[in-house]
Amino acid sequence: xxxxxxxxxxxxxxxxxxxxxxxxxxxxxxxxxxxxxxxxxxxxxxxxxxxxxxxxxxxxxxxxxxxxxxxxxxxxxxxxxxxxxxxxxxxxxxxxxxxxxxxxxxxxxxxxxxxxxxxxxxxxxxxxxxxxxxxxxxxxxxxxxxxxxxxxxxxxxxxxxxxxxxxxxxxxxxxxxxxxxxxxxxxxxxxxxxxxxxxxxxxxxxxxxxxxxxxxxxxxxxxxxxxxxxxxxxxxxxxxxxxxxxxxxxxxxxxxxxxxxxxxxxxxxxxxxxxxxxxxxxxxxxxxxxxxxxxxxxxxxxxxxxxxxxxxxxxxxxxxxxxxxxxxxxxxxxxxxxxxxxxxxxxxxxxxxxxxxxxxxxxxxxxxxxxxxxxxxxxxxxxxxxxxxxxxxxxxxxxxx
Length: 401
Ligand SMILES: Cc1cc2nc3c(=O)[nH]c(=O)nc-3n(C[C@H](O)[C@H](O)[C@H](O)COP(=O)(O)OP(=O)(O)OC[C@H]3O[C@@H](n4cnc5c(N)ncnc54)[C@H](O)[C@@H]3O)c2cc1C
Fold this sequence. Notes:
Blueprint lengths: L6 H18 L3 H6 L12 H12 L18 H11 L5 H4 L6 H11 L2 H12 L4 E5 L16 E5 L2 E12 L6 E9 L10 E7 L5 E7 L11 E12 L10 H37 L1 E2 L2 E2 L4 H30 L6 H26 L10 H9 L8 H14 L3
Parallel strand pairs: 1-4
Antiparallel strand pairs: 2-3, 3-7, 4-5, 6-7, 8-9
Bound molecules: flavin-adenine dinucleotide (FAD).
Protein backbone atom coordinates (compact mmCIF):
# COMPACT_ATOMS: atom_id res chain seq x y z
CA UNK A 1 0.00 0.00 0.00
CA UNK A 2 1.29 3.39 -0.93
CA UNK A 3 -0.69 6.16 0.71
CA UNK A 4 1.35 9.12 -0.52
CA UNK A 5 -0.85 11.50 -2.49
CA UNK A 6 -0.28 11.84 -6.22
CA UNK A 7 0.52 15.23 -7.77
CA UNK A 8 -3.07 15.41 -9.03
CA UNK A 9 -4.43 14.93 -5.49
CA UNK A 10 -1.98 17.40 -3.93
CA UNK A 11 -3.06 19.98 -6.50
CA UNK A 12 -6.76 19.35 -5.76
CA UNK A 13 -6.12 19.48 -1.99
CA UNK A 14 -4.50 22.88 -2.44
CA UNK A 15 -7.34 24.19 -4.61
CA UNK A 16 -9.99 22.87 -2.22
CA UNK A 17 -8.25 24.30 0.86
CA UNK A 18 -7.97 27.70 -0.82
CA UNK A 19 -11.65 27.54 -1.81
CA UNK A 20 -12.64 26.71 1.78
CA UNK A 21 -10.59 29.64 3.08
CA UNK A 22 -11.83 32.11 0.51
CA UNK A 23 -15.52 31.17 0.29
CA UNK A 24 -16.72 28.59 2.83
CA UNK A 25 -15.43 29.67 6.27
CA UNK A 26 -16.25 33.36 5.67
CA UNK A 27 -19.84 32.43 4.73
CA UNK A 28 -20.61 29.94 7.51
CA UNK A 29 -22.66 32.41 9.51
CA UNK A 30 -24.34 33.88 6.43
CA UNK A 31 -25.54 30.40 5.37
CA UNK A 32 -27.32 29.99 8.71
CA UNK A 33 -28.63 33.55 8.73
CA UNK A 34 -30.22 33.04 5.31
CA UNK A 35 -32.37 30.12 6.47
CA UNK A 36 -35.92 31.38 6.98
CA UNK A 37 -36.46 31.03 10.75
CA UNK A 38 -40.27 30.93 10.38
CA UNK A 39 -40.32 28.30 7.64
CA UNK A 40 -36.84 26.72 7.52
CA UNK A 41 -37.69 24.17 4.84
CA UNK A 42 -39.15 26.69 2.40
CA UNK A 43 -35.98 28.13 0.93
CA UNK A 44 -32.36 27.37 0.19
CA UNK A 45 -29.89 29.97 1.45
CA UNK A 46 -29.02 31.93 -1.73
CA UNK A 47 -25.32 31.76 -0.81
CA UNK A 48 -25.45 28.00 -1.49
CA UNK A 49 -26.25 28.41 -5.20
CA UNK A 50 -23.63 31.18 -5.50
CA UNK A 51 -20.97 28.94 -3.98
CA UNK A 52 -21.99 25.95 -6.14
CA UNK A 53 -21.46 28.06 -9.25
CA UNK A 54 -18.01 29.09 -8.03
CA UNK A 55 -17.07 25.46 -7.24
CA UNK A 56 -18.19 24.35 -10.73
CA UNK A 57 -16.08 27.07 -12.32
CA UNK A 58 -13.10 26.03 -10.21
CA UNK A 59 -13.44 22.41 -11.40
CA UNK A 60 -14.24 21.26 -7.85
CA UNK A 61 -17.43 19.41 -8.78
CA UNK A 62 -18.56 15.77 -8.53
CA UNK A 63 -15.20 14.68 -7.17
CA UNK A 64 -16.70 11.38 -5.95
CA UNK A 65 -17.88 8.60 -8.36
CA UNK A 66 -14.64 6.63 -8.51
CA UNK A 67 -13.44 5.87 -11.97
CA UNK A 68 -16.73 6.67 -13.62
CA UNK A 69 -17.16 8.69 -16.79
CA UNK A 70 -19.54 10.97 -14.84
CA UNK A 71 -17.19 12.06 -12.06
CA UNK A 72 -13.71 13.57 -11.85
CA UNK A 73 -12.08 10.18 -12.48
CA UNK A 74 -10.68 9.87 -8.96
CA UNK A 75 -10.31 6.58 -7.09
CA UNK A 76 -11.67 6.21 -3.54
CA UNK A 77 -8.11 6.57 -2.27
CA UNK A 78 -7.68 9.82 -4.19
CA UNK A 79 -11.07 11.16 -3.11
CA UNK A 80 -10.52 10.44 0.62
CA UNK A 81 -8.24 13.41 1.45
CA UNK A 82 -10.50 15.75 -0.54
CA UNK A 83 -13.69 14.56 1.11
CA UNK A 84 -11.93 15.10 4.45
CA UNK A 85 -11.37 18.78 3.65
CA UNK A 86 -15.05 19.23 2.74
CA UNK A 87 -16.06 17.59 6.03
CA UNK A 88 -14.64 20.52 7.99
CA UNK A 89 -17.90 22.46 7.45
CA UNK A 90 -21.21 20.59 7.48
CA UNK A 91 -22.74 22.29 4.42
CA UNK A 92 -19.53 22.33 2.35
CA UNK A 93 -19.96 18.91 0.65
CA UNK A 94 -23.13 20.20 -1.06
CA UNK A 95 -21.18 23.14 -2.50
CA UNK A 96 -19.03 20.63 -4.41
CA UNK A 97 -21.99 18.33 -5.23
CA UNK A 98 -20.45 15.69 -2.99
CA UNK A 99 -23.13 15.53 -0.26
CA UNK A 100 -24.98 12.56 1.20
CA UNK A 101 -27.34 11.02 0.34
CA UNK A 102 -27.00 12.22 -3.26
CA UNK A 103 -23.55 10.71 -3.74
CA UNK A 104 -24.73 7.20 -2.78
CA UNK A 105 -27.90 7.60 -4.83
CA UNK A 106 -25.97 8.79 -7.89
CA UNK A 107 -23.69 5.76 -7.58
CA UNK A 108 -26.80 3.55 -7.63
CA UNK A 109 -28.15 5.31 -10.72
CA UNK A 110 -24.81 5.00 -12.50
CA UNK A 111 -24.68 1.28 -11.79
CA UNK A 112 -28.29 0.17 -11.96
CA UNK A 113 -30.30 2.95 -13.64
CA UNK A 114 -31.64 2.59 -17.19
CA UNK A 115 -30.61 5.12 -19.83
CA UNK A 116 -33.96 6.84 -19.23
CA UNK A 117 -33.37 6.99 -15.43
CA UNK A 118 -29.95 8.48 -16.07
CA UNK A 119 -31.35 11.16 -18.33
CA UNK A 120 -34.25 11.98 -16.00
CA UNK A 121 -32.60 11.75 -12.58
CA UNK A 122 -28.84 11.27 -12.76
CA UNK A 123 -28.20 14.20 -15.09
CA UNK A 124 -29.95 16.85 -12.92
CA UNK A 125 -28.36 15.34 -9.80
CA UNK A 126 -24.91 15.58 -11.37
CA UNK A 127 -25.68 19.18 -12.33
CA UNK A 128 -26.78 19.98 -8.76
CA UNK A 129 -30.24 21.02 -9.98
CA UNK A 130 -32.23 18.58 -7.84
CA UNK A 131 -31.62 16.50 -4.73
CA UNK A 132 -32.61 12.99 -3.68
CA UNK A 133 -33.31 10.82 -0.64
CA UNK A 134 -32.96 7.20 0.39
CA UNK A 135 -36.05 5.71 2.06
CA UNK A 136 -35.31 2.50 3.86
CA UNK A 137 -35.77 2.91 7.63
CA UNK A 138 -39.26 2.43 9.08
CA UNK A 139 -40.63 3.57 12.45
CA UNK A 140 -42.41 0.30 13.21
CA UNK A 141 -39.54 -2.18 12.89
CA UNK A 142 -35.91 -2.49 14.04
CA UNK A 143 -34.45 -1.25 10.79
CA UNK A 144 -30.82 -1.99 11.66
CA UNK A 145 -31.87 -5.47 10.48
CA UNK A 146 -33.03 -4.57 6.98
CA UNK A 147 -34.76 -7.94 6.54
CA UNK A 148 -37.43 -6.44 8.86
CA UNK A 149 -38.42 -3.76 6.34
CA UNK A 150 -42.18 -4.06 5.70
CA UNK A 151 -43.05 -1.55 2.95
CA UNK A 152 -44.52 -3.35 -0.04
CA UNK A 153 -43.69 -2.99 -3.72
CA UNK A 154 -46.25 -4.97 -5.70
CA UNK A 155 -46.41 -5.40 -9.47
CA UNK A 156 -49.70 -4.43 -11.12
CA UNK A 157 -49.58 -4.58 -14.92
CA UNK A 158 -47.04 -2.06 -16.19
CA UNK A 159 -46.70 -0.45 -12.78
CA UNK A 160 -45.55 -1.10 -9.24
CA UNK A 161 -47.68 -0.04 -6.27
CA UNK A 162 -45.82 1.11 -3.14
CA UNK A 163 -47.22 1.19 0.38
CA UNK A 164 -45.44 1.89 3.65
CA UNK A 165 -44.19 4.49 6.11
CA UNK A 166 -40.54 5.48 6.20
CA UNK A 167 -38.69 7.85 8.48
CA UNK A 168 -35.24 9.39 8.63
CA UNK A 169 -35.29 9.86 4.85
CA UNK A 170 -32.50 12.43 4.96
CA UNK A 171 -32.74 15.30 2.53
CA UNK A 172 -36.47 14.95 1.87
CA UNK A 173 -37.16 18.21 3.71
CA UNK A 174 -35.34 20.10 0.96
CA UNK A 175 -37.69 21.69 -1.61
CA UNK A 176 -35.25 20.59 -4.34
CA UNK A 177 -35.57 16.91 -3.35
CA UNK A 178 -37.41 15.29 -6.25
CA UNK A 179 -36.64 11.60 -6.17
CA UNK A 180 -36.51 8.83 -3.57
CA UNK A 181 -34.91 5.43 -3.78
CA UNK A 182 -37.37 3.34 -1.77
CA UNK A 183 -36.61 -0.09 -0.34
CA UNK A 184 -39.46 -2.53 0.22
CA UNK A 185 -40.59 -6.13 -0.08
CA UNK A 186 -41.86 -7.43 -3.38
CA UNK A 187 -41.89 -11.12 -2.41
CA UNK A 188 -42.22 -12.01 1.31
CA UNK A 189 -41.95 -15.73 0.42
CA UNK A 190 -38.55 -15.50 -1.30
CA UNK A 191 -35.28 -16.37 0.52
CA UNK A 192 -34.60 -13.79 3.26
CA UNK A 193 -32.14 -11.65 1.29
CA UNK A 194 -34.08 -11.74 -1.97
CA UNK A 195 -37.40 -10.38 -0.70
CA UNK A 196 -36.44 -6.70 -0.96
CA UNK A 197 -36.21 -4.42 -3.97
CA UNK A 198 -35.26 -0.79 -4.57
CA UNK A 199 -37.40 1.40 -6.76
CA UNK A 200 -37.34 5.03 -7.93
CA UNK A 201 -40.26 7.08 -6.65
CA UNK A 202 -40.69 10.72 -7.75
CA UNK A 203 -41.68 12.70 -4.66
CA UNK A 204 -44.47 14.48 -6.53
CA UNK A 205 -46.26 11.15 -7.19
CA UNK A 206 -49.85 11.02 -5.90
CA UNK A 207 -49.87 9.20 -2.54
CA UNK A 208 -46.51 10.51 -1.30
CA UNK A 209 -46.93 12.62 1.86
CA UNK A 210 -44.17 14.16 3.93
CA UNK A 211 -45.62 13.91 7.42
CA UNK A 212 -42.93 15.72 9.42
CA UNK A 213 -39.20 16.16 9.87
CA UNK A 214 -37.48 14.68 12.91
CA UNK A 215 -34.85 16.63 14.82
CA UNK A 216 -31.36 15.61 15.91
CA UNK A 217 -30.75 16.72 19.53
CA UNK A 218 -33.07 19.62 18.71
CA UNK A 219 -31.37 20.59 15.44
CA UNK A 220 -33.72 20.50 12.45
CA UNK A 221 -30.89 20.30 9.88
CA UNK A 222 -32.90 22.65 7.64
CA UNK A 223 -33.20 22.90 4.73
CA UNK A 224 -32.00 19.29 4.39
CA UNK A 225 -34.20 17.62 7.02
CA UNK A 226 -34.84 14.01 7.97
CA UNK A 227 -38.39 13.25 6.85
CA UNK A 228 -41.09 10.82 7.80
CA UNK A 229 -42.79 9.91 4.54
CA UNK A 230 -45.99 8.03 3.91
CA UNK A 231 -46.24 6.10 0.64
CA UNK A 232 -49.91 5.31 0.14
CA UNK A 233 -50.81 3.33 -3.01
CA UNK A 234 -48.11 5.15 -4.93
CA UNK A 235 -47.91 3.99 -8.56
CA UNK A 236 -44.74 4.19 -10.63
CA UNK A 237 -43.87 2.66 -14.02
CA UNK A 238 -42.43 -0.86 -13.82
CA UNK A 239 -39.23 0.44 -15.42
CA UNK A 240 -38.51 2.36 -12.19
CA UNK A 241 -37.42 -0.91 -10.54
CA UNK A 242 -33.65 -0.81 -10.02
CA UNK A 243 -31.72 -3.80 -11.41
CA UNK A 244 -34.59 -6.24 -10.78
CA UNK A 245 -36.99 -7.64 -8.22
CA UNK A 246 -35.25 -9.03 -5.14
CA UNK A 247 -32.01 -7.11 -5.73
CA UNK A 248 -32.46 -4.66 -2.84
CA UNK A 249 -29.81 -6.23 -0.62
CA UNK A 250 -27.34 -6.63 -3.44
CA UNK A 251 -27.74 -2.92 -4.32
CA UNK A 252 -27.50 -1.90 -0.65
CA UNK A 253 -24.14 -3.61 -0.37
CA UNK A 254 -22.83 -1.55 -3.26
CA UNK A 255 -24.49 1.68 -2.15
CA UNK A 256 -23.69 1.67 1.51
CA UNK A 257 -19.98 0.88 1.08
CA UNK A 258 -19.04 4.16 -0.62
CA UNK A 259 -21.64 6.11 1.40
CA UNK A 260 -20.18 4.84 4.67
CA UNK A 261 -16.60 5.59 3.81
CA UNK A 262 -17.50 9.10 2.62
CA UNK A 263 -19.05 9.73 6.06
CA UNK A 264 -15.79 8.56 7.66
CA UNK A 265 -13.65 10.81 5.48
CA UNK A 266 -15.81 13.85 6.33
CA UNK A 267 -15.78 12.88 10.00
CA UNK A 268 -11.98 12.96 10.06
CA UNK A 269 -12.17 16.50 8.63
CA UNK A 270 -14.58 17.50 11.41
CA UNK A 271 -12.16 16.07 14.01
CA UNK A 272 -9.23 17.96 12.45
CA UNK A 273 -11.18 21.19 12.61
CA UNK A 274 -12.13 20.61 16.26
CA UNK A 275 -8.48 19.98 17.16
CA UNK A 276 -7.42 23.13 15.31
CA UNK A 277 -10.03 25.20 17.19
CA UNK A 278 -8.99 23.61 20.50
CA UNK A 279 -5.30 24.38 19.94
CA UNK A 280 -5.99 28.02 19.07
CA UNK A 281 -8.37 28.57 21.97
CA UNK A 282 -6.15 27.14 24.73
CA UNK A 283 -3.27 29.36 23.65
CA UNK A 284 -5.44 32.47 23.83
CA UNK A 285 -6.83 32.14 27.37
CA UNK A 286 -5.17 32.18 30.78
CA UNK A 287 -6.44 30.52 33.96
CA UNK A 288 -4.74 30.19 37.33
CA UNK A 289 -1.71 32.13 36.17
CA UNK A 290 -0.84 30.31 32.96
CA UNK A 291 -2.13 29.62 29.49
CA UNK A 292 -4.65 26.78 29.44
CA UNK A 293 -2.38 25.18 26.82
CA UNK A 294 0.29 24.79 29.47
CA UNK A 295 -1.85 22.44 31.56
CA UNK A 296 -0.52 18.88 31.29
CA UNK A 297 -4.04 17.47 30.98
CA UNK A 298 -4.78 19.69 28.00
CA UNK A 299 -1.54 18.67 26.31
CA UNK A 300 -2.54 15.04 26.83
CA UNK A 301 -5.90 15.71 25.10
CA UNK A 302 -4.05 17.29 22.18
CA UNK A 303 -1.56 14.44 21.87
CA UNK A 304 -4.27 11.79 22.09
CA UNK A 305 -6.38 13.63 19.52
CA UNK A 306 -3.50 13.76 17.05
CA UNK A 307 -2.75 10.04 17.59
CA UNK A 308 -6.42 9.06 17.24
CA UNK A 309 -6.96 11.13 14.09
CA UNK A 310 -3.88 9.70 12.39
CA UNK A 311 -4.92 6.13 13.21
CA UNK A 312 -8.44 6.67 11.90
CA UNK A 313 -7.15 8.32 8.73
CA UNK A 314 -4.84 5.39 8.01
CA UNK A 315 -7.67 2.89 8.41
CA UNK A 316 -9.89 5.01 6.15
CA UNK A 317 -7.18 5.06 3.50
CA UNK A 318 -6.72 1.31 3.81
CA UNK A 319 -10.47 0.74 3.35
CA UNK A 320 -10.48 3.11 0.33
CA UNK A 321 -7.44 1.34 -1.13
CA UNK A 322 -9.14 -2.04 -0.77
CA UNK A 323 -12.35 -0.77 -2.36
CA UNK A 324 -10.28 0.35 -5.34
CA UNK A 325 -8.21 -2.82 -5.61
CA UNK A 326 -10.35 -5.78 -4.52
CA UNK A 327 -13.83 -4.23 -4.61
CA UNK A 328 -16.46 -3.00 -2.16
CA UNK A 329 -17.57 -6.52 -1.22
CA UNK A 330 -14.09 -7.73 -0.32
CA UNK A 331 -13.44 -4.49 1.59
CA UNK A 332 -16.52 -4.97 3.78
CA UNK A 333 -14.50 -5.77 6.92
CA UNK A 334 -12.40 -2.61 6.63
CA UNK A 335 -15.49 -0.53 5.80
CA UNK A 336 -17.26 -1.88 8.91
CA UNK A 337 -14.19 -1.19 11.08
CA UNK A 338 -13.74 2.39 9.97
CA UNK A 339 -17.49 3.02 10.24
CA UNK A 340 -17.13 2.26 13.98
CA UNK A 341 -13.74 3.93 14.50
CA UNK A 342 -14.22 7.30 12.77
CA UNK A 343 -17.35 8.62 14.54
CA UNK A 344 -16.21 7.42 17.98
CA UNK A 345 -12.81 9.01 17.46
CA UNK A 346 -14.29 12.30 16.26
CA UNK A 347 -16.80 12.43 19.12
CA UNK A 348 -13.94 12.14 21.63
CA UNK A 349 -11.92 14.88 19.93
CA UNK A 350 -14.91 17.22 19.56
CA UNK A 351 -15.98 16.62 23.15
CA UNK A 352 -12.52 17.66 24.37
CA UNK A 353 -12.60 20.73 22.16
CA UNK A 354 -15.98 21.62 23.68
CA UNK A 355 -14.46 21.21 27.15
CA UNK A 356 -11.49 23.39 26.23
CA UNK A 357 -13.84 26.17 25.08
CA UNK A 358 -15.74 26.19 28.37
CA UNK A 359 -19.38 27.27 28.09
CA UNK A 360 -18.82 28.71 24.62
CA UNK A 361 -18.26 25.15 23.43
CA UNK A 362 -21.89 24.15 23.90
CA UNK A 363 -23.25 27.35 22.34
CA UNK A 364 -23.94 28.43 18.77
CA UNK A 365 -20.78 30.57 18.78
CA UNK A 366 -18.54 27.74 17.60
CA UNK A 367 -19.31 24.89 15.15
CA UNK A 368 -18.48 22.34 17.87
CA UNK A 369 -21.89 21.66 19.43
CA UNK A 370 -23.61 21.18 16.07
CA UNK A 371 -20.71 19.07 14.85
CA UNK A 372 -20.91 16.80 17.90
CA UNK A 373 -24.68 16.35 17.45
CA UNK A 374 -24.22 15.61 13.77
CA UNK A 375 -21.48 13.07 14.23
CA UNK A 376 -23.25 11.36 17.12
CA UNK A 377 -25.89 10.27 14.60
CA UNK A 378 -23.24 8.35 12.65
CA UNK A 379 -23.06 5.79 15.44
CA UNK A 380 -26.62 4.93 14.30
CA UNK A 381 -27.06 5.98 10.68
CA UNK A 382 -25.92 3.52 8.00
CA UNK A 383 -25.94 0.82 10.67
CA UNK A 384 -25.40 1.13 14.44
CA UNK A 385 -21.93 0.41 15.88
CA UNK A 386 -23.13 -2.89 17.36
CA UNK A 387 -24.26 -4.22 13.99
CA UNK A 388 -20.89 -3.45 12.39
CA UNK A 389 -19.06 -5.00 15.34
CA UNK A 390 -21.20 -8.11 14.99
CA UNK A 391 -20.16 -8.36 11.34
CA UNK A 392 -16.47 -7.82 12.17
CA UNK A 393 -16.61 -10.54 14.86
CA UNK A 394 -18.24 -12.92 12.41
CA UNK A 395 -15.53 -12.36 9.77
CA UNK A 396 -12.94 -13.00 12.46
CA UNK A 397 -14.58 -16.14 13.83
CA UNK A 398 -14.98 -17.55 10.32
CA UNK A 399 -11.20 -17.65 9.93
CA UNK A 400 -10.93 -20.29 12.66
CA UNK A 401 -13.96 -22.41 11.88
C1 LIG B 1 -29.44 11.54 11.34
C2 LIG B 1 -29.89 10.25 10.77
C3 LIG B 1 -30.00 10.14 9.38
C4 LIG B 1 -30.49 8.96 8.82
N1 LIG B 1 -30.66 8.90 7.45
C5 LIG B 1 -31.28 7.82 6.90
C6 LIG B 1 -31.64 7.82 5.52
O1 LIG B 1 -31.35 8.78 4.77
N2 LIG B 1 -32.35 6.78 5.03
C7 LIG B 1 -32.72 5.71 5.82
O2 LIG B 1 -33.36 4.80 5.32
N3 LIG B 1 -32.37 5.69 7.15
C8 LIG B 1 -31.69 6.72 7.71
N4 LIG B 1 -31.38 6.72 9.05
C9 LIG B 1 -31.82 5.61 9.89
C10 LIG B 1 -30.71 4.70 10.36
O3 LIG B 1 -30.09 4.04 9.29
C11 LIG B 1 -31.34 3.74 11.39
O4 LIG B 1 -31.72 4.53 12.50
C12 LIG B 1 -30.40 2.64 11.81
O5 LIG B 1 -30.23 1.72 10.77
C13 LIG B 1 -30.93 1.89 13.05
O6 LIG B 1 -32.24 1.44 12.87
P1 LIG B 1 -33.33 1.77 14.01
O7 LIG B 1 -33.31 3.22 14.29
O8 LIG B 1 -34.62 1.15 13.59
O9 LIG B 1 -32.77 1.06 15.31
P2 LIG B 1 -33.08 -0.44 15.80
O10 LIG B 1 -32.91 -1.37 14.66
O11 LIG B 1 -34.35 -0.45 16.54
O12 LIG B 1 -31.86 -0.69 16.79
C14 LIG B 1 -31.79 -0.04 18.06
C15 LIG B 1 -30.49 -0.40 18.75
O13 LIG B 1 -30.43 -1.80 18.99
C16 LIG B 1 -29.09 -2.20 19.08
N5 LIG B 1 -28.85 -3.33 18.20
C17 LIG B 1 -29.40 -3.61 17.00
N6 LIG B 1 -28.88 -4.72 16.46
C18 LIG B 1 -27.96 -5.18 17.33
C19 LIG B 1 -27.06 -6.27 17.37
N7 LIG B 1 -27.01 -7.16 16.35
N8 LIG B 1 -26.26 -6.41 18.45
C20 LIG B 1 -26.32 -5.55 19.48
N9 LIG B 1 -27.11 -4.50 19.50
C21 LIG B 1 -27.94 -4.30 18.45
C22 LIG B 1 -28.22 -1.02 18.65
O14 LIG B 1 -27.68 -0.36 19.77
C23 LIG B 1 -29.23 -0.12 17.95
O15 LIG B 1 -28.85 1.25 17.97
C24 LIG B 1 -30.85 7.87 9.65
C25 LIG B 1 -30.69 7.97 11.04
C26 LIG B 1 -30.21 9.14 11.59
C27 LIG B 1 -30.11 9.23 13.09
